[in-house]
Amino acid sequence: MNEALFFHYALPPLAALAFIAGLRYFAQRQRRRLQTQGLHLIYWLKAYSAWVDCQRDEPFLARDVDELALPEPLARALALKDAAFPDLAQHMVRLLQAHSRLIEYLWQHNLLRMSLATGWQAAHEDSRYQQIRGAQEDLIEEMITLCQERIGQSAREWKRTGSDFAFSSSLGIGTQESVSGS
Question: Which of 51, 109, 143, 158 is the most exposed place for a label (fewest CB within 10 A)?
Answer without folding.
Answer: 158
